[in-house]
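Notebook entry, structure prediction.
Reason for the run: the old model in the group folder had no record of what sequence produced it. Starting over properly, with the input documented here first.
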Amino acid sequence: MHFYELHEGDAEQFFDVLMFREEEMDADEFFTIVQSIRRQVQDSYETDSLIEAIAEELERNYGFVFVSDDRLTAAVNVSKVEDDNFLADLDSGELEEDAESGAGDVDYRAVYADFEPTEPDPN
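New structure, fully documented this time:
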């Protein structure tokens, strides 16, 4: 089994999807196929992200399996805090609800800062 990953994002947000395939595909060939699919779907996809649309096309036509959330068998929240460890109920949409509600008093906030390492230090 061979694993492949697609990344999408900019400096503020980053997404990735994981796929696998029984037969190995050369990395350059994989890149060429992904670029071809991207050009075909980039203005008309209906998934949440471009990489999900590409992954679905790779699954339909190139023997890949797209490891999407709806294929999960189990999901476990893991934390150093004992009460924040639990087996998620995949059927209830608990994963999405917990992330949105801040379940377990977990702090999901983040701080973003623009940093250009090529700019001179103003000090």
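Summary: The chain has two domains: 2-70, 72-123.
The old model has been moved to the deprecated folder.
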